[in-house]
């Protein structure tokens, strides 16, 4: 049974009378600290807000809301909300409701704010922890301006909603933000996903009526509600409508399954009353890199490594690594389905078991294959060592993984370099005997190798000692808990040779002491960083951006935020930004139609991730092709995202998303046409499209090599994005599906005006 998390340190459970604060109204200036073990309590005493000890990280603490009922033993007082999810702070840290109305978490280790409610401009007058477990910030009129229910972690309490703008993200075993999420797409379907592109559970399609939200009810039901708050999809706990149940919650657990829990008074423990995925092995990557999911004789699931004990560290990796010197063969795994997780992609063909087995053997990059024996004869090839899967006697799939015919120096004549699927399993037994016979010869060689290794180690450390005397500053080793480098201004000048190598406006090239090249952007104007933003808020903003990782986003490496000057440090890519590629006649020839579509898809994936898949909503704010660079494979990498976050011109999340969508629509038109810097490029493209001449919009440098149907589809979605009425613009998730060809798109409304600049049609106030 999956027990709810509860890691509150023991002293936290002292008498409510002694430490507690009856949190009817929490005034500005109120403060909770780790050292004092104090907390805020709901009026009914059922919930408490305060610090807890992360059991796997000594002297590391989080802050959040837990159950506090006196009927619950301390270990069962489960966490239901955590500020910042993954954020950990030191023993001398505190959380405070500032006089400006911000709820801020200050870390004593980093001497900076690591999480904030960002409500300093919302006229907050007080706070309150309500009887339903919702922590709210209120203005003078007692209106809610911020609430924990609107920023869920991994749990929903009774009465709490989940909308399309919110996401539940499971806590991983070590409290680092995990890969598993629960979200609602634009069609109103709930889905459980791994990373950004694998959905392993979703609700069945409902009626065509728009969905308002998902809600977890007090009676123990999880439902989708339409715009009239009528349920159109429901799932019920085993004890639904049982009035004797005092407490419930719904949580996305660390193993990727969504479960409903009820408090069992008789056993004084939490009882699982419903789960979304009945067979835990059906949860994608439930075993991670620990092998394949199998059922035990007790009916539970466990993870076992099918590749033997010769795996690296604690990971169960496919053994083949393309370095076989004596040939390779395939080993059979019956009733097993394997799939890759890094990347989570299989190469699928239709062929027989023998052909599938042989195709992997002949492919130097193939590590394993699975054949679905379900009448479709699908061969799923994996070209990665990061493999998992599941095994069940009732499963009709069969899998094979590749192994080398090593480590013997000379392969005997009677051992074949390839084998049939039926004889492959016996081959491992032969290989184990051969390994034993060669062990004596190998032992003497290992002694010599050990002596050479020891000499090499001595020379290596001698060289490092000499290099240390001549090395640069030692400050590079000073990184914060999320791996960001914090530089002083003088240190930043050192790595940039006094800001000598300028790449563009406020952009400089630098080299870290590790010889890694980086790009440094100086934040000068109010639009970029806000003149009124303090040091603590700046560091808090950096902490938000520093944990954002996506293959189509340029990684933030560090920052400089003192001496009145602020800089952000990004990873460096040698290829220029996309606008340079479009301008340059020679470079533009490499931007084929297929590559242009792929670049647009990459940018769309990055924006969809920022808008709906991060823990907090993040807009780009300054989207254009100048802020998209290309890597060596010409894959799009979006940079400078989130720099409008603390601008005095900042707007609401929904409006920020709409502006990003409109900018992206313009970028699509530019990419298709190759025209840049022309104010009327959108209206010209739309006019050609309306007149049935969409092909005239396409860049002539492509020489007619493009897909006409694809041009039509992409221009349609671009014109939807640039609609003057922002309410008509699609969400980035929808745009992405259209670009990928998985969602059809209707012609945009005829009333279209592109001559009016987007800044005027949707100004940022």
Automatic annotation (TrEMBL):
GO terms for biological process: recognition of pollen; response to other organism. Its EC number is 2.7.11.1. This is Receptor-like serine/threonine-protein kinase. It catalyses: L-threonyl-[protein] + ATP = O-phospho-L-threonyl-[protein] + ADP + H(+); L-seryl-[protein] + ATP = O-phospho-L-seryl-[protein] + ADP + H(+). Residues 25-150, 153-273 form the Bulb-type lectin domain. Residues 324-404 form the Apple domain. Gene3D superfamilies: Bulb-type lectin domain, Phosphorylase Kinase, domain 1, Transferase(Phosphotransferase) domain 1. The chain crosses the membrane at residues 439-462. Residues 1-23 form the signal peptide. It comes from Elaeis guineensis var. tenera (Oil palm). One of its GO terms (molecular function) is ATP binding. Pfam families: B_lectin, PK_Tyr_Ser-Thr, S_locus_glycop. Belongs to the protein kinase superfamily. Ser/Thr protein kinase family. PANTHER family: G-TYPE LECTIN S-RECEPTOR-LIKE SERINE_THREONINE-PROTEIN KINASE SD3-1 (PTHR47974:SF13), OS07G0415500 PROTEIN (PTHR47974). It is an enzyme of class 2 (transferase). Its main location: membrane. GO terms for cellular component: plasma membrane. It is a single-pass type I membrane protein. InterPro entries: Bulb-type_lectin_dom, Bulb-type_lectin_dom_sf, Kinase-like_dom_sf, Pan_app, Prot_kinase_dom, S_locus_glycoprot_dom, Ser-Thr/Tyr_kinase_cat_dom, SRK-like_kinase. SUPFAM superfamilies: alpha-D-mannose-specific plant lectins (SSF51110), Protein kinase-like (PK-like) (SSF56112).
């Amino acid at each position: 049974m999956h027990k709810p998390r509860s890691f509150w340190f023991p002293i936290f459970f002292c008498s409510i009378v002694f430490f507690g604060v009856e949190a009817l109204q929490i005034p500005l200036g109120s403060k909770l600290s780790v050292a004092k073990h104090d907390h805020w309590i709901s009026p009914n005493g059922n919930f408490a807000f305060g610090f807890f000890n992360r059991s796997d990280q000594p002297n590391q603490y989080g802050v959040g809301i837990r159950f506090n009922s006196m009927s619950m033993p301390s270990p069962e007082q489960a966490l239901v909300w955590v500020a910042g999810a993954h954020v950990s702070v030191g023993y001398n840290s505190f959380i405070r409701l500032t006089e400006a109305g911000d709820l801020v978490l200050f870390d004593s280790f980093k001497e900076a704010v690591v999480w904030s409610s960002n409500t300093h401009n919302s006229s907050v007058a007080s706070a309150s922890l309500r009887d339903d477990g919702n922590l709210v910030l209120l203005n003078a009129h007692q209106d809610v301006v911020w609430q924990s229910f609107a920023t869920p972690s991994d749990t929903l309490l009774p009465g709490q909603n989940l909308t399309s703008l919110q996401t539940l993200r499971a806590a991983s075993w070590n409290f680092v933000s995990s890969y598993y999420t629960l979200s609602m797409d634009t069609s109103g379907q709930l889905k459980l996903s791994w990373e950004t592109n694998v959905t392993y559970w979703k609700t069945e399609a409902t009626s065509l009526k728009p969905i308002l939200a998902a809600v977890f009810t007090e009676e123990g039901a999880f439902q989708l509600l339409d715009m009239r708050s009528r349920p159109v999809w429901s799932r019920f706990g085993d004890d639904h409508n049982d009035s004797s149940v005092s407490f419930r919650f719904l949580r996305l657990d660390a193993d990727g399954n969504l479960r409903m829990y009820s408090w069992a008074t008789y056993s004084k423990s939490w009882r699982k009353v419903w789960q979304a995925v009945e067979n835990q092995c059906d949860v994608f990557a439930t075993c991670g890199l620990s092998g394949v999911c199998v059922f035990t004789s007790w009916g539970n699931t466990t993870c076992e490594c099918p590749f033997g004990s010769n795996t690296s560290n604690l990971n169960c990796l496919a053994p083949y690594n393309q370095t076989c010197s004596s040939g390779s063969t395939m080993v059979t795994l019956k009733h097993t389905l394997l799939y890759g997780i890094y990347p989570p992609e299989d190469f699928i063909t239709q062929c027989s078991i023998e052909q599938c087995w042989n195709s992997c053997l002949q492919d130097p990059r193939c590590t394993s294959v699975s054949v679905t024996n379900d009448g479709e004869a699908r061969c799923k090839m994996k070209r990665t060592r990061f493999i998992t899967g599941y095994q069940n006697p009732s499963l009709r799939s069969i899998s094979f993984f590749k192994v080398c015919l090593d480590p013997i120096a000379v392969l005997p004549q009677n051992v074949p370099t390839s084998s049939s699927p039926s004889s492959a399993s016996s081959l491992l037994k032969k290989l184990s005997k051969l390994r034993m016979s060669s062990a004596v010869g190998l032992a003497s060689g290992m002694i010599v190798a050990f002596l050479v290794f020891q000499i090499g180690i001595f020379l290596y450390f001698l060289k490092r000692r000499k290099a240390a005397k001549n090395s640069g500053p030692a400050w590079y080793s000073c990184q914060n808990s999320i791996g960001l480098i914090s530089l002083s201004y003088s240190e930043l000048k050192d790595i940039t040779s006094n800001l000598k190598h300028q790449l563009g406006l406020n952009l400089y090239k630098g080299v870290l002491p590790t010889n890694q090249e980086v790009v440094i952007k100086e934040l000068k104007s109010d639009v970029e960083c806000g003149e009124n933003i303090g040091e603590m808020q700046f560091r808090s903003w950096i902490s938000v951006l520093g944990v954002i990782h996506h293959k189509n986003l340029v990684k933030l490496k560090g920052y400089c935020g003192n001496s009145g000057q602020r800089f952000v440090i990004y990873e460096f890519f040698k290829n220029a930004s996309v606008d340079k590629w479009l301008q340059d006649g020679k470079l533009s020839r490499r931007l084929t139609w297929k590559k242009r579509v792929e670049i647009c898809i990459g940018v769309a994936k990055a924006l969809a991730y920022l808008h709906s898949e991060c823990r907090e909503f993040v807009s780009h704010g300054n989207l254009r092709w100048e802020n998209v660079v290309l890597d060596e494979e010409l894959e799009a990498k979006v940079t400078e995202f989130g720099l409008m976050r603390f601008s005095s011109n900042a707007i609401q999340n929904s409006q920020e998303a709409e502006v990003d969508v409109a900018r992206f629509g313009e970028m699509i038109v530019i990419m298709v046409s190759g025209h840049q810097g022309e104010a009327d490029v959108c209206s010209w493209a739309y006019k050609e499209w309306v007149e049935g001449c969409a092909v005239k919009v396409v860049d002539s440098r492509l020489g007619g090599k493009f897909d006409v149907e694809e041009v039509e589809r992409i221009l349609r979605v671009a014109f939807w994005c640039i609609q003057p009425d922002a309410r008509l613009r699609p969400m980035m998730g929808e745009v992405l599906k259209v670009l990928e060809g998985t969602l059809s798109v209707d012609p945009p409304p005829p009333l279209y005006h592109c001559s009016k600049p987007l800044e005027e049609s949707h100004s940022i106030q």
